[in-house]
Structure formats: C-alpha cells, structure tokens
Specification:
Blueprint (H helix, E strand, L loop, with lengths): L2 H28 L6 E2 L4 E8 L13 H21 L3 H24 L2 E9 L2 E2 L5 H20 L7
Antiparallel strand pairs: 1-2, 2-3, 3-4
Helix pairs in contact: 1-3, 2-3, 3-4
C-alpha cells in the first residue's frame, strides 16, 4: 500500500477519533446537565440532537435510516475516489470528508441523531450548530474544490 493511502487512512481514523472523543466529552462531562455554556460573546457550547441533514434540514420526520443508508453510499463512493486519486493532497482532502461522514454516521446508528455542539453567532445572526465531523467535511470539500479549481494541472489534449 502506498504512503499516500496510508496517510489518507490515518486522516480518516484521526478525524473519526477526534470527532467521537469530542462528542463523548460534550455528552458525559461538559453538557451534563445540558445547559449552554457561553465561551465568548459570539460562541457557545450547546447540545443539539440533529435528526436531519446539513444544518438540521429535513429533521422533522424520522429519516434516520434513510439518511444513514445515503451516508453509507456516499462514503463508499468517496472512499473509492480516495483510493484512486493520484495526489496526496486530493486523497487527504477526500479523507477528511470520509472521516467526517463516518463520524456522523456513527452517531446516527448509536443515537438516531447527530450530536452538534459548536454554536457561533453575531448579534442576532445564529449559524446552525455543528461538530468536529461537520468541520472536517467542510474543510475537505473546500480543499477538493481548491485542488480542482487551482492546483490540478491537466495536460491539454491534442
């Protein structure tokens, strides 16, 4: 196995581990009882059970298993892309997305919802709560876009 793949698999595992460790800490130590904690005037730690998808969309019904199956399919497709990618940058970027997706998938199977706890706001504008896995997914997607738009140098076809 190439070093690129080993590093990518390590990134997936570290992302999952850090995500699950942070959620465990929030559930058992920080939010017990679940009272919001003001960290700064623009950031709180809260405990939100997200039964929907991104930012709680489609969270009103019980779609837990549908969302879990969809996440599994997407994760398998991304994993295949990660293994086929030619550069460490792209492979590592995809690994962040895969690790984040698996982290949130673990929550869906364990709790029927994803644990969100990072809550930013500016005055009356509140960004939806998120977690470490969501952050990894966002950073990974941004890096994939960066690679596709700026870094990849495709040879012109004759």
């Amino acid at each position: 196995m190439s070093s690129r793949l080993l590093i990518s698999i390590l990134i997936v595992c570290v992302t999952i581990g850090f995500d699950q460790l942070s959620k465990w800490y929030v559930l058992t130590k920080l939010m017990n009882p679940p009272i919001p904690i003001d960290v700064t005037n623009f950031f709180q730690l809260v405990l939100i059970w997200n039964k929907g998808v991104s930012f709680g969309m489609f969270g009103s019904g019980d779609l837990t298993w549908v969302l879990a199956v969809l996440a599994i399919i997407i994760t398998l497709i991304l994993s295949g892309w990660m293994f086929r990618s030619k550069t460490l940058f792209l492979s590592a970027s995809i690994a962040l997305v895969v690790g984040g997706a698996i982290g949130n998938l673990i929550d869906r199977f364990r709790f029927g919802a994803v644990i969100d706890f990072l809550y930013f706001h500016i005055d009356d504008f509140y960004w939806p709560a998120f977690n470490v896995a969501d952050s990894a997914i966002c950073v990974g997607v941004a890096l994939i876009l960066l690679e596709g738009l700026l870094l990849s140098k495709e040879q012109p076809k004759n």
